């Protein structure tokens, strides 16, 4: 094998390169942001050449979109698929987020990219709509009079608490959970809300 056939550190190109690039992108994008992460830095950290990176991803925009595509496609399945909780309890469990959790990657990408036509912006929109839909489905199970409205309200509270926690470096989720409980109790008729 000649030096030209080897990557920057002597590794054979292609073996796990795509996974290394995505793993490194996830780490760097979360730690320092999408815009502050250059392709030179990303390639060096992933131990691939820029040529190899561009063979796997047509450009940084495609890499950012693929980075977002890799997150939680089942939309908070650890909360919504729990059978040990009532629907009301599942709605409240969506607020059990440790304050050390990094900012939602979809919010981070949408804020940084400023381009509604960017492929990553579409993934962010789709994901955020899916979260609201899962909340609405669970609200419907709980007997909410207007489950879509409650789902949107709770989705807004989750995103707001995530952003506020990050900006203030203080846990905003307990306050958001208290507001959510009041919204849920107001949305579910007393005759249905036997699990309160």
Automatic annotation (TrEMBL):
Domain HTH tetR-type: 15-75
Keywords: DNA-binding
PROSITE patterns: HTH_TETR_2
Stored Gene3D superfamilies: Tetracycline Repressor, domain 2 (1.10.357.10)
Binding region for DNA: 38-57
One Pfam family, short name: TetR_N
Protein name as it appears in the record: TetR family transcriptional regulator
Annotated organism of origin: Streptomyces xanthochromogenes
């Amino acid at each position: 094998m000649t030096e030209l056939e080897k990557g920057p550190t002597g590794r054979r190109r292609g073996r796990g390169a795509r996974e290394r690039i995505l793993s490194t992108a996830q780490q760097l994008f979360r730690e320092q942001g999408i815009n502050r992460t250059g392709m030179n830095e990303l390639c060096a950290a992933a131990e691939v050449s820029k040529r190899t990176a561009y063979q796997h991803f047509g450009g940084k925009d495609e890499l950012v979109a693929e980075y977002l595509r890799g997150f939680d496609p089942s939309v908070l399945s650890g909360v919504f698929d729990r059978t040990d909780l009532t629907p009301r309890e599942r709605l409240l469990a969506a607020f059990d987020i440790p304050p050390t959790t990094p900012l939602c990657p979809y919010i981070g990408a949408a804020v940084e990219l400023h381009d509604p036509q960017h492929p990553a912006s579409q993934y962010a929109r789709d994901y955020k709509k899916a979260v609201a839909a899962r909340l609405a489905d669970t609200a419907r199970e709980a007997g909410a009079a207007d489950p879509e409205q409650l789902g949107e309200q709770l989705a807004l509270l989750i995103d707001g608490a995530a952003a506020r926690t990050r900006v203030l470096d203080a846990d905003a989720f307990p306050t958001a959970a208290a507001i959510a409980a009041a919204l849920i109790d107001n949305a579910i008729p007393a005759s249905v809300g036997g699990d309160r």
